[in-house]
Amino acid sequence: VGWSRDSQRGSPMQLSGTVEALQVYIFVPDDGDIKTVEFFLDKTVAGNTATHKEGKAPYDLAGTSGTTSLPLNTVNLPAGAHFVEVLVTRKNGATEEARGDFTIPAISNGAALLDVSATSDRMGGVP
Prior knowledge:
Blueprint: E1 2-4, E2 13-14, E3 16-18, E4 23-28, E5 34-41, E6 52-54, E7 59-60, E8 64-65, E9 68-69, E10 72-73, E11 80-90, E12 95-104
Parallel strand pairs: 3-12
Antiparallel strand pairs: 1-2, 1-4, 4-7, 4-10, 5-6, 5-11, 8-9, 11-12
């Protein structure tokens, strides 16, 4: 499971560790032998309904517009540990599962991104 800060999936990284971006693009790279990819955000493959399913490349968690990946907005996720499990179905019917774990720091979920103050010295600012 890969991710990028770029909607064209440029400079991809393995989904692991802290994600410090407000919008991320989570995807499974196409190897030419994939029929479908099902994404499960913060839930396991076993016994759950997919968060999103893609039936043609490119395979993106939040969907695709043409060839451009749509972003997962991390502001919509609480700070803390998260994971994505994927179920890849191959053209021959075989299936594979993969998982990526990531952490959203408090600043990325919108906390303290903007304080509002009524005074020019910025005293008494409130989130």
